[in-house]
Design brief:
By secondary structure, the protein is mainly alpha-helical. The protein has eleven helices and two strands; from the N terminus they run ααααααααααββα. Strands 1-2 form a two-stranded antiparallel sheet. This is Cobalamin biosynthesis protein CobD.
């Protein structure tokens, strides 16, 4: 299955110019459908979670196949689908909002805004904890929001774009460990791990290519320490590239995780958020250029 490389590149340009659509965002619509479906299907069972994820992801794939059959390799249709599944620009904008708040000493504002980037409990976080949360989120989501959609768009066309975003959205909704979703969200979380395996490592490699030997060294040494099979590759590469130390204690709704540290540098500071955002954008454009050149 082939997709228009020009369409993917134009979609990246649209995301860079406009960010996420302000109204009638298809991903938000999918999230509403998924929330409604959860009310009907939910049970403390892996099998119910398999059915839930299978039906929703299969539906997204069917829409993608239908669009591709109608539009073929249309540059505009591919661009539109690419635009709505990407989130790199919105990720960068949220990172810069957090940078401005933290640089201005507005800790309460930063705590209130953190949920736009991650599910970490912000209530007990000081400035250092907030900065680390933002840098880690920018690193991980460079793959989730930008590189992975491009990889799957290149591999499987419009269906690949829509299936990837459906899986990633479900993982964000039900894929985290909690008493409610430990079993029900298992299928969504494992699908997300599988679809992000290659993109996360590609993201880490691109970060290291831009940044040099320290990033390669930390990526190779520390990337596997993270409890996620994918997030650690991105975070370790960013830690080495920025010369900072990531990892540590995180709290998610009363659940505490103690993660190994990655990197040999100092603790990240507010100014490092801007550096992380810039690096994320560079990696996104590099990934887009590589995908375009391969089509």
């Amino acid at each position: 299955m082939r997709v228009s490389g020009e369409g993917l590149l134009l979609g990246v340009a649209l995301d860079a110019l406009f960010g996420d659509p302000k109204r009638w965002h298809p991903v938000a619509g999918f999230g509403k459908v998924a929330s409604a479906a959860e009310k009907w299907v939910y049970g403390d069972s892996r099998w119910r979670g398999v059915v839930y994820a299978g039906v929703l992801v299969g539906g997204a794939g069917a829409v993608g196949v239908a669009l591709e059959r109608v539009a073929g390799r249309s540059v505009l249709v591919t661009a539109g689908c690419t635009w709505v599944v990407l989130g790199g620009t919105s990720l960068g904008r949220e990172g810069l909002v957090m940078a401005r708040l933290l640089e201005g000493g507005e800790l309460e504002g930063a705590r209130g805004r953190l949920s736009h980037l991650c599910a970490r409990d912000p209530r007990g976080l000081d400035e250092a904890g907030l900065v680390r949360a933002v840098v880690e989120s920018v690193a991980e989501n460079t793959s989730d929001a930008a590189v992975a959609p491009l990889v799957w768009g290149a591999v499987a066309g419009i269906p690949g774009l829509l299936v990837y975003r459906a899986v990633n959205t479900l993982d964000a909704m039900v894929g985290y460990r909690s008493p409610r979703y430990e079993r029900f969200g298992w299928a969504a979380a494992r699908l997300d791990d599988a679809l992000n395996w290659v993109p996360a490592r590609a993201t880490g490699a691109l970060v290291a290519l831009f940044s040099g030997r320290d990033s390669w060294r930390v990526l190779w040494r520390d990337g596997k320490k993270h409890p996620s099979p994918n997030a650690g590759r991105c975070e370790a590469a960013f830690a080495g590239a920025l010369g900072v130390r990531l990892g540590g204690v995180n709290e998610y709704g009363g659940r505490v995780e103690r993660r190994p540290e990655m990197g040999d540098g100092r603790a990240p500071e507010a100014r490092d958020i801007r550096r992380a955002v810039g690096l994320s954008a560079a990696v996104t454009f590099a990934a887009a250029a590589i995908v375009w050149s391969l089509r």
